[in-house]
């Protein structure tokens, strides 16, 4: 109960329920959970190319010959990569920053994988870098920092479009979303 209670979003009642669930579960089921926790801390490591989480040296996206290796989508977290993968519309590769530049929280550019990204671009086979950092002050700041570093290398740099969400209504959109949508309008 004590251990479950330390997990994010788990209160005392839920921790109790989970603990009793494990107690009642079959040995196989309980050990599968224990093994998964053990494996995630011993086998999972960052991909040596893109820093996505993997059990191999190079992740299965980087190793996939069908992926377009000349387009790199830069995301903050492995979770963002999974979310973009789930859309099924992107066939390039990734670069995971492992965070965003946040001086107030003590996160400097050197703490992220930005140097490795610059090296990948310098390699000469990259044609486009898509900046998919979060549309927040820190995410924008991180994107700006990266742009300043890779722009001189002559690579095409794009940013994810921002604006109205699909299924939304204009009258309920806030000012910043609507101004992004107006500024990023495109020809039909
Ligand atoms: Zn990779």
In short:
The protein has helices at residues 2-5, 12-24, 27-42, 78-87, 114-122, 137-150, 175-183; strands at residues 45-46, 53-54, 68-75, 92-96, 128-131, 156-159.
Structural write-up:
With 188 residues, the chain is α/β, with parallel strands linked by helices. It contains seven helices and six strands. Strands 4-3-5-6 form a four-stranded parallel β-sheet. It starts with a helix and ends in a 5-residue tail after the last helix. Bound molecules: zinc ion (ZN). Zinc ion binds next to loops.
Largest sheet: 4 strands, parallel
SSE topology string = HHHEEEHEHEHEH
How helical, in percent, are the residues? 25-40%
What is the end-to-end distance? 56 Å
The share of residues in extended strands comes to 5-15%
Quote the average pLDDT.
Answer: 94
The low-confidence runs, each spanning 5 or more residues with pLDDT under 50, are: none
Let me know the number of strands.
6
Q: How are the strands ordered across the major sheet?
A: 4-3-5-6
Shape: globular
- The helix tally amounts to 7
